[in-house]
């Protein structure tokens, strides 16, 4: 597929998953360039990629001559450059709520359980796979407890995190739920999160962005 | 001071520091309510505070009947509700760049070295103060290396992170530099970051937001 939009992605990256959902919700065609995060020492550390993304993380979105990093910043860019359908509400308080929900995942859950942090607790503290699982589930639980409370207690919550239109908070939440299941976490304490995740799963934009649907997913 | 804006803050919290700078840049009066993160088991865990902020983190901003969490979401709210001076550029690509720089700090440095993560590596891996210092400096270095490259290599960088007006990226960077110094990190490899931090330090809005200037700072 030829496109002006190129997404450097890894099938199982939560952050790339977010951007894939946003691109799909906006109905934008894009070319996927796979960056394998593990094989051969990690494609994110290859010089050509580091020149695009000095953080050596995925995703990176290239829009013609513009190179963009950080998934939530990329989603806001897509929302500002392609207004339909909107991924944030129009009122400032609603936007603050959606961004806060997104940032619970994007700041306070996902980065603490990212691949490089797991590698680091292995290297610095000799954490084994069991210890890594405990670490992961601890931080997901901390974040999900807060999100569940915020979602369950607010009249702003609808079919999705904010009203009846999927947006920035949902496209951060769904990959994190996928990740929680991968780490075999019980989600029984988070019924609102599970309900919203299920509602999102019915949408083609979310389904097509799933890790297993990506061209670089293992067969 | 009486005000409709109430900031729940801790003098040494990087995230609260960001919001204080934004409030000062906007010239907004606000009331500080101190949440002591350590004393008596941590004020962030007290039921009255948890009702405002289910994540049990600072800051929280209350604007009349609106309760807002997550510092970067709060700063965007302030920018949307008080347009002068703007904390983000007007073009989408510039906004994406500033948000990405902010999120390097806000997602990929600060949350991994937050108090609760340090407490966790102590509890789960018996990390002592020396180990905690190694952990902190590792993540700050990872993020600062990327930021330094992005800042030094871009024509968009000016006196501040983006042009000659301080904004969202600067108000995330400065508290992180403060934090790096607290952890006795050498900043020799980051001359652009150090230059921008020094330029910000000359501004009253940044100076008045410094931890030592806060009503809850130790004498």
UniProtKB/TrEMBL annotation, chains A, B:
GO terms for MF: maleylacetoacetate isomerase activity
Enzyme Commission number(s) of this protein: 5.2.1.2
Domain of life of the source: Bacteria
Enzyme class (EC, first level): isomerase
SUPFAM superfamilies: GST C-terminal domain-like (SSF47616), Thioredoxin-like (SSF52833)
Domain GST N-terminal stretches: 3-86
UniProt keyword annotations, A-Z: Isomerase
Residue stretches making up the GST C-terminal domain: 91-219
CDD domains: GST_C_Zeta, GST_N_Zeta
Family, per entry: Belongs to the GST superfamily. Zeta family.
Name this polypeptide is given: Maleylacetoacetate isomerase
